[in-house]
Amino acid sequence: MQENRDFHKREKKIILRLETPIILSTRLTLSDQELLSAYLREGELSYLGDLFQRHSEMVYYVCLRYFKESERSKDAVMHIFEELIEKVKKQEIQDFPRWLYVVSKNHCLMELRRQKNKTEIVTDNFVEFGVNLHQEESYQDREDQLLQLEACIAQLVEKQKQSIQLFYIEQKCYMEVSEITGYSMNEVKSFIQNGKRNLKNCMERARHE
Known about the structure:
The chain has 209 residues and is mainly α. The chain has helices spanning 2-16, 32-42, 45-67, 70-87, 96-115, 137-155, 158-169, 174-181, 185-208. The chain has 9 helices and no strands.
């Protein structure tokens, strides 16, 4: 028991020393949503830095769970923060901690999949799963969900599949998807919306099978 307590104390000290590109400030009274809105409105990186700092310990432990290496996990925290600088501008985020957990989990899975030469699938926002950040058993389930998501994407009609892959996986904007595919903007939005709904339905069916 004493060894476990000492381990957690050491890990907490590591978190505090993470060399992340985070700019600290005194905006402690602002909510997560207020900090996020301020960053999106003003483009000031310190807002995003303050927001990320609040949840960096969670990000670290998610990474540590997958990589099993402290240094690699700390590096991943830095990379995830760098990804957020642009990623938060492209998605409507209602629950930042939950969204950040998904981003962190996907980052780790993609890194592990690169080692195995597997296809990378990003699921930051277009399929939402119920996540309880306080129940570790739910973390393991998400790998199975990602694999099921790949299967569901493969079942989409071609127009929806192409639009979903370009918009969510390759992070293209509506205009870029339209230019690449030749579909109109309204068609692109419709294909993405319908594809998103079909993916959710597919995932729901898979859960009950």
